[in-house]
Write the structure tokens for this entry.
Amino acid sequence: MVAWTPYTDPTNDLNVAFDNQVKNTVEGAGMKHVYCSGKATAVDQSNCIDQFIAQNVDIILIYPADVDAMAEKIKDANAAEIPVGSFFGNIPDVGQEQLYTLTIPVYDAGVLNGHKLVEYLTEKNGGPQGTVLEITGLMTTSQAQDRNAGFHSVVDEYPDIEVTVRNGDYDTAKAGTITTDWFTANPDTDAIYIHSNCDYTPSVRSALEALDLYVPKDEPGHIGIFGTDGCNSSLHEVRCGFQDYGTTYPTDLAAAQMAQIAVNYLETGDSPQPGETVSIPGLEGGTVAMVEGSGGPIYFMELIEYTQETANVPTLFGNSFMSEPNGLTSCDDR
């Protein structure tokens, strides 16, 4: 019996895909799949772990809503002798043990977005200066914390770049409200850094369009937009020149691979160890190396950059896995 608790209810196509990949992989191996949404709170996800322990499941897979709270709950699972795998969560080491962690290098994504944004401001304003709105993800998750930390490791080196941070909580509607309120009061803001261009691209676009501030980058008044994840809508907007830059990953493979490692463990008793490689079908190169991480082995998926010139690469997951409009869609259809 494989138990899966994502950090919240599925709020976009990608989260739906994650849930389906886990379910299909587990049931395809003839095993039982148990589900409980974390509903974006430490309390709800902790209750999920308690339910799984009471059900005496064979393994628990967690996409943490709150990494600190989950570190403690993993200790409860350890005490019940139930192994745990974590997904997209660099959980702090408080003495718990995780069988493995699959994650993406979002700190590095934040760094790359920071450098590209500095280049944009320098070209626009004659130097590394200007005003930026940052819309974060759910800041109790390591994913949002690392996107923020990587970005600020770059932009904080430039005292004339002023960044205002607003917490979006990976909530599409909330990001739209933040954008509307901010740009109504501050229409001369130079750029936006969004933690998830999956969750935020549609509402940021709508908010700026309503204010007549959404124009392509070759026209006066363009607002630079930078972000990470690489869903279909972001690829389309970057390809058509309305947004500037993004980072992505082979995310379409991620949840299935995490679940497959769990299935293999239950079938054989083996799990990847630091220094070993893990085969990921469909991933260019085929394998990734496990390294030592907090609480157990960890592996990072590939980080991929995209611009207006490369957003139409067919193998990007937002193009190959998600529906149009994406980076393959004609800009004439806007």
